[in-house]
Design a protein that fits this description.
The complex is a heterodimer of chains A (256) and B (209).
Chain A (H helix, E strand, L loop, with lengths): L4 E9 L2 E3 L13 H10 L5 E5 L4 H17 L4 E4 L5 H10 L3 E4 L1 H5 L2 H10 L4 E9 L7 E5 L4 E6 H11 L3 E6 L11 H8 L6 E4 L5 H8 L6 E4 L1 H4 L5 H10 L9
Parallel strand pairs in A: 1-3, 1-11, 3-4, 4-5, 5-6, 6-9, 9-10, 10-11
Antiparallel strand pairs in A: 1-2, 6-7, 7-8
Chain B lengths: L1 E4 L6 H10 L4 E4 L2 H6 L2 E4 L5 H10 L3 H10 L3 E4 L1 H4 L2 E4 L5 E2 L4 E7 L8 E9 L13 E7 L1 E2 L8 E7 L1 E9 L2 E4 L7 H14 L10
Parallel strand pairs in B: 1-2, 1-3, 3-4, 4-13, 5-7
Antiparallel strand pairs in B: 5-6, 7-10, 8-9, 8-11, 11-12, 12-13
Classes of the chains: A alpha/beta (256), B alpha/beta (209).
């Protein structure tokens, strides 16, 4: 049986890992290479590196970092942040990434998904969406870009469907409302997208407890959970999370 | 020395890292002379069937791959490097493959989330040398939308279930293929490269896995 994935996310700024709280705070959470090795040993199923500076000079730092991680960590690696064209993708994939995560760039130029999928295969193209509920109680979410600063007015579910049509092999759905709150994922959003696309959906934004992870995978119907702060500060290890999910009857990989 | 065939496949560098990590001697090559004299051959692969076959054909590699397999030296095909060994694939409107093993690579049935992406159990159907020391049912990392069957073929070394039971390890004498990515499957995956390298007569670093 296909297991559900737990994916620690490392927000990288200036080559150091930092935590994101509603896209703002900057508390330093350690060296990304060290953290990657630690997560690998504690059972992470994949790792995501998100470059929150995403400028040209930092792309070189990111490439070097990816190469170091890929030399010692033999699980799938995804990189996101500031990737704008197939050449950026190629550089990241060559440095050791297995997938690239596209967010703002897909709104500016949706064809980037198709170009990436055609050149590198759908399995490397992750369509990452930052979504905010338009009003409390509403079942419409809109897509925001530029790290949650610009509202595009696009319907988040329709945008996920469009991304898959263009060739994305996976959707990361990040709730802006829940991000950094540690109050739990937006389960309505996750369920809505999981039922609308044929590709795997990764839940993002809001994990604070192990129960939140279980909810995203059961009620939210997500195939994987992305989490940052609950693991970075070692409130819980990935292994703790897997023990908990296994007790709840959710299939997870424990033979790492 | 292991020859890792370089035909533009996206996972070639990851495979190189894994082979290097286990301490085996290797060369990345498209040179038929190197492939013909290597102690073992690794055929990487990721992405789509047509691209894979075009990549092999455009570099005149189908002959060297066929000769390598016919020679009886250890051979390991990974993901598309496994699928390429079959007769053909449904992918890209139908793609002719190398036809070294009978069967059509088929898309997973509708109703499943595709690609089959993540860690799933690999169940051996017999003793498979590259799986030595790995417990039956160990999880490996998969990412693919098409799969090989049938799982009861005499060259099926191990199978995995995702909506259907499919062939996840091909085993025919010294010829192996994995549908999953050992280079992305943590310690059990590194063990596969170490086992394969040993079959090729390489000494490997016992601390690496």
């Amino acid at each position: 049986m296909l297991t559900r994935r737990i994916i620690p996310c490392l927000d990288v700024k200036n080559g150091r890992n930092v935590r994101g709280v509603r896209f703002s705070a900057d508390r330093d959470a350690g060296d990304p290479v060290e953290l990657a090795a630690y997560y690998n040993q504690s059972g992470a199923d994949e790792l995501v590196f998100y470059d929150i500076t995403a400028s040209a000079e930092h792309r070189d730092i990111m490439r070097g970092l990816l190469e170091q991680v890929a030399d010692q960590v033999f699980i799938p690696l995804t990189v996101g942040g500031g990737i704008r064209n197939p050449d950026d993708m190629f550089q990241m994939l060559r440095a050791g990434a297995d997938k690239v995560s596209l967010n703002t760039a897909t709104v500016e130029n949706p064809e980037i998904i198709r170009e990436g999928a055609n050149r590198f295969g759908s399995q490397c193209i992750v369509h990452s969406i930052d979504a905010q509920r338009v009003a409390e109680g509403s079942d419409r979410w809109e897509v925001w870009t530029h790290g949650g600063r610009v509202n595009t007015g696009l319907d988040a579910i329709a945008w996920a469907v469009r991304g898959v049509e263009l060739g994305a092999g996976e959707i990361v759905m990040n709730s802006i409302d829940a991000d950094g709150t540690r109050d739990g994922y937006d389960l309505d959003l996750l369920r809505a997208v999981s039922r609308s696309v044929p590709v795997p959906v990764v839940a993002s934004g809001g994990a604070g407890t192990l129960e939140h992870l279980a909810e995203a995978l059961s009620e939210g119907e997500a195939h994987a959970v992305l989490a940052a702060s609950i693991f970075h500060y070692k409130d819980f290890t990935v292994d703790d999370a897997k023990e908990y999910l296994a007790e709840k009857g959710i299939p997870v990989r424990k033979d790492f | 020395m292991l020859a890792i065939i370089d035909y533009g496949s996206g996972n070639m560098r990851s495979i190189e890292r894994a082979v290097r990590h286990v301490g085996a001697d290797y060369q990345i090559t498209i040179d038929p002379a190197v492939i013909a004299t290597a102690d073992g051959i690794v055929l990487p692969g990721v992405g789509a069937a047509r691209d894979t076959m075009t990549g092999l054909l455009s570099r005149d590699l189908t002959g060297p791959v066929r000769e390598a397999i016919a020679s009886g030296r250890p051979f390991l095909g990974v993901c598309m490097g496994l699928q390429a060994l079959f007769t053909d694939s449904e992918e890209d409107g139908g793609t002719d493959c190398l036809d070294l093993y009978p069967g059509t690579i088929r898309r997973f049935p509708d109703g499943l989330h595709i690609p089959h992406m993540g860690w799933n159990q690999v169940t051996p159907r017999r003793d498979v040398p590259i799986l030595e020391g790995i417990a039956p049912g160990t999880n490996f990392y998969f990412v693919h939308s098409y799969c090989a069957g049938p799982a009861d073929a005499d060259f099926c070394g191990a199978s995995t279930e995702y909506g259907v039971e499919f062939l996840s390890v091909l085993h025919d004498g010294n010829i192996f293929g994995t549908q999953f990515h050992p280079e992305k499957s943590g310690r059990p995956g590194l063990r596969i490269y170490a086992n394969f390298a040993r079959l090729c007569g390489e000494s490997v670093d016992p601390d690496a896995v």
